[in-house]
Structures are given as structure tokens and as C-alpha cells.
């Protein structure tokens, strides 16, 4: 019996402290929600906005990410190891929306916080891996998860939040307060091939 309780506690372990989401002030965001929603009140009692949990491996988190990009064939062991690494190193704030009726993750976004020497040893946030399950689109969940993570960056003391997006998403992100910076709106990448061995 005690082993079962320990395993349940292990699976419900959060990547970061969930109470920080309760502090977010949605009135600070230029986003317009109709009807009004927030991380604390996501618009339906069957939804919850929260940090990623170790047990989300079984709640479709990786399947949701695969709607965004390739995830590969990640095993539970790999997921647990990466979760532990992210939690120990800090600076990783994967935030999800769960449909409590089906125990499935329906939206997610990642805030990665970089420690800088510039701007008086400040913090910079990066918004990554924003995805909403295709069957739940049209319910303001994209806006909700992006605004939640953006306000989280502000709450953590980031001086700036950055993102890369496709051209077709620029207007969406502009409606949430993001701006193209003239002369500084290029995204450049260098991709490294995986070692086949």
C-alpha cells in the first residue's frame, strides 16, 4: 500500500512549483479574452492550467507535442530522465492545460529562462513548443497558454521574452503583446544532424 502511495506521489511530481501560477495578473496582458479567462479560471471546471507533471507521460503529453514537430520514440525512462534533468537544472517551465474529464494534456508551452550577464545579470525568457490539441482549437487555449507563460516570465523577473514563429502566426503573437523589432527580426538556426550510431 505504501509503495502505491509513493508511486502516485512520484507521478504527480511537478516540474516547478504550481503556486506561482496563482500569482499571475492577467490584467497586465494586452490579450483580449472573451469571455475572460486566466490560469486560475481557464473557462471550464474540467480544465486545469498547471506545471508539467512526471505522470504526464501517460496523459498524452508527447502525443500532443507530436502535433507540433517530431518527438521521436521516447521511452518512459528517457522521459523520466529528462524531467529530472530539467527539474534539477532549473530554468525550465513547461506549462500544460489538462482536460480532467479524459486525463489528457490538451495544450502546452515551454518557458526557458536564460541567465545573462547583460542588463545587470538579468534573466531572459524564451517561449518554445506552443501547441494546442487540434480537437480543442477555437477555445482561446492558445492565447491562454501563451499569456500564462509570458506572465510567468515577468513574474520570474525576466527583462524580455522572445520567440520564433512562422509568418502566419505574427498577428496572433502581436495580439498578445509581442512585437517585431525593426532591424532585429531575423531568426537564424544551425541544425546539427543526429549521430546515426
Q: What is the helical fraction, as a range of percent?
A: 25-40%
Low-pLDDT regions:
none
Biggest sheet record:
5 strands, mixed
pLDDT averaged residue by residue = 92
Continuous helix count: 6
The class by helix and strand makeup works out as: alpha+beta
Instruction: Give the radius of gyration.
Output: 17 Å
Distance between the termini: 43 Å
The strand line-up of the biggest sheet is: 1-2-3-4-5
Number of strands: 5
Q: Which oligomerization state do the chains in this entry correspond to?
A: single chain
Q: What is the 3D shape?
A: globular
Order of helices and strands: HEHHEEHEHEH
List the helices and strands and how they pair.
Layout: H1 2-11, E1 47-51, H2 61-65, H3 76-89, E2 92-99, E3 104-115, H4 118-121, E4 123-132, H5 141-155, E5 158-163, H6 170-174
Parallel strand pairs: 4-5
Antiparallel strand pairs: 1-2, 2-3, 3-4
Keywords: Acyltransferase, Transferase
Enzyme class: transferase
Domain N-acetyltransferase: 47-197
